[in-house]
Design a protein that fits this description.
The structure holds 2 protein chains of 2 kinds. By secondary structure, chain A is mostly beta strands. Chain A contains no helices and 11 strands. Chain A starts with a strand and ends with a strand. Helices cover 0% and strands 58% of the residues of chain B. The chains are: A mainly beta, B mainly beta.
Chain lengths: 113, 109
């Protein structure tokens, strides 16, 4: 069974631009969660999608948004990029919501110049 | 609020046991986890323990949970150079998982 895939793996953007990251969960998994990982703040929960609905949201500004499609694939969008948005963005999938086991993808490394 | 704390670094010799410690604050935590992250990679779930358990063993890994003190530990027996990585402790009481800052394990040959 293929694992969680994330595209692209690396991105370089400039301040003020917007970016879309993609996550394909493990086949059969219906929940996708997104996390931001930075050296200063560690791993922080962004949001979770289940059956195309955002179920839970972390403490991030409205510039961070996401969606989930009927095939459970998810996208995350960050608008008006700031230098501080440079991070590794990790996606995790699980069978259901109210997670017990999450499986993480390799992440997308976003650099904002 | 919810918080998970762990020491930042641990250095051991190859063949020795490693013990990585973690404390958490949320008494409603249901599951506690240990993840491993190697350079340039995502997080790999190593093991998890349900909050009503005291111990879980899985090959070289032993997880101990002291629920009264909200203390979790991960013991890696016969540590190998391939175990060098960052280890994250995490807890969940429901919809989201709270992670510690990670312990970087150095294994000296």
């Amino acid at each position: 069974k293929a694992g969680v895939t994330q595209t692209p793996r690396y991105l370089i953007k400039t301040r003020g631009q917007q970016v879309t990251l993609s996550c394909s969960p493990i086949s059969g998994h219906r929940s996708v969660s997104w996390y931001q990982q930075t050296p200063g703040q560690g791993l922080q929960f962004l949001f979770e999608y289940f059956s195309e609905t955002q179920r839970n949201k972390g403490n991030f500004p409205g510039r961070f948004s996401g969606r989930q499609f009927s095939n459970s694939r998810s996208e995350m969008n960050v608008s008006t990029l700031e230098l501080g948005d440079s991070a590794l963005y990790l996606c995790a999938s699980s069978l259901q919501t109210s997670v017990i086991e999450q499986f993480f993808g390799p992440g997308t490394r976003l650099t904002v110049l | 609020g919810e918080d998970v704390e762990q020491s930042l670094f641990l250095s051991v010799r190859e063949g020795d046991s490693s013990v990585i410690n973690c404390t958490y604050t949320d008494s409603s935590s249901t599951y506690l986890y240990w993840y491993k992250q190697e350079p340039g990679a995502g997080l790999q779930l190593l093991t998890y323990i349900f909050s009503n358990m005291d111990m879980k063993q899985d090959q070289r890994l032993t997880v101990l949970l002291n629920k009264k003190d909200k203390h979790l530990s991960l013991r890696i027996a016969d540590t190998q150079t391939g175990d060098s990585a960052i280890y994250f402790c995490a807890e969940t009481g429901g919809f989201k998982t709270i992670f510690g800052a990670g312990t970087r394990l150095f294994v000296k040959a």
